[in-house]
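thread: overnight batch results

M.L. [08:02]
morning all. the overnight job finished for the chain we discussed friday. pasting input first so we're all looking at the same thing
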Amino acid sequence: MKMGRFEGFYLSVVLNSFLLFCHGGTTSRYVRRLEATADMPLDSDVFCVPPGCNAPQQVLHITQGDLEGKALIVSWVTQKARGSNLVLYWKEHSNKMLKAHGKSKKYNFYNYTVSDFVVLFLQYDTKYYYMVGVGQTERTFWFLTPPKPGPDVPYTVGLIGELGQSFDSNITLTHYENNPLKGQTILFVGDFSYADTYPNHDNNRWDIWGRFVERSTAYQPWIWTVGNHELDFAPRLLTLIVLQGETKPFQPFKHRYRTPHRSSGSTEPFWYSIKRGPAYIIVLASYSAYGKYTPQYMWLEQEFPKVNKTETPWLIVLMHSTWYNSYDYHYMEGETMRAMYELWFIKNKVDVIFAGHVHGERSECISNIAYNLVNGICSPVKDLSAPVYITIGDGGNLEGLSTIMTEPQPKYSAFRDASFGHAISSIKNRTHTYYGWHRNQDGCAVDGDTMWFFNRFWHPIDDSPDDDS
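M.L. [08:03]
and the structure it wrote out:
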């Protein structure tokens, strides 16, 4: 197994288009085991605590710290005692040391307490080294900042969802690390540690997961979306003394995984936006209120006009609960959000929507905006003005894979495969993006599903639906 080492007290930084090639209406014939996977044992090397007295661990969450990509949030944990909150960082080939002091936070969840974070201010397209645990047990890592946003800046993202901490999770992360198409950041579509599946939502499982993924999260930003397994809403948790319910959702996530929500005018860390190279990325929360007049709705209404497709031509949306799903599992769970927002997505030319919750599907360019209670027309139709929906909740969770699918395969479903894996989306320029999905059973360079996208803003074809449709 791959080592992922650290310790713990906290410190906190495509595609609405045209299909060029695709596997139309394909269901993979790959035969896989159907049983749930198993979590790795607690003494696995990927869960090791880093050596040294109170060494910083879970140097996870380096994530973007502002809208434009010139700031980074660094978070870590020191579990045994309060550690140094100083971060030293410097450019490659530079002797000039920069300093940043972090803030410490604590949270209580049932019988668990922990927390800390710092924001670094940076230059575009630069390699930086950074050190945590300064003056104590020091650990050094590095990262690359993104290029300045622009329409023809090539940029490659990895895509993972529902990772967990199983044997399959380790295979997925290793497979991603070995992919020759190197992702510069990961878009993560929710369901992190699955700590909520253990008695009392065992928050030590968050620590274990943090040490497991540190081998990636300490070196490249992960852009986070919350899933249902981050809710951690447990009003009936019972202590030995009194009934102490956990009635505030998302407590572990909020304290462990910072997001740059304030830089995009958001009031909560669950929905926000960032720019990365030629992409404008909007993160939405499937499990926060999204109806009319809610904070998320009002924020999104003001967000779309900010998208400048001459600067960031690719508009990507991340969420957890998929809207279009031909599996029996979680079928239509995203329907109410779809009914609220789908027309917005089409009018604002969202290119692709990445979601999780189910394991492995890509749609055609489809919409269901013609439907209303009067006409009763409720079948999704091909609509070249609509986004492509890609579901990638197949990282390796212990619940296993969804394998029961609707038959025959719906016309709106272009490709589906219930296998664990990851994806790479490589934005080439303002007109082209290449998407490839990689199942764990294949070689690292093998694409299980591929698609080319043309950007409609820079490829002017009349793709609007007919008035009578």
